[in-house]
Amino acid sequence: MRNHKNRTFWDDLIKVLVRSYRLATSLPANDQLTHGAEIKRKTVRVRTKIVAAGSVESAADSGTAFEAAYQGLKEIASSSLWNWA
After folding, report:
1. What is the pLDDT of residue 81?
2. Domains: count for the chain
């Protein structure tokens, strides 16, 4: 089993996820229930996919998990809520 924290991008990824999570919690109360909750779910899902990608032995399974994480990051990055940050 490989260690996901040995990935060169791990520290940068964590910074992006922490910033996303902070954005979600800094939204006005009425937006935290909708947009904030969705951003939080996506950030947790991305981290989970990265950990899964690093823990599987199969290159195909690892690639699939990394692709899912990448798509989640794209969704977070394209969120119109980043204009609030």
Report:
1. 55
2. 1
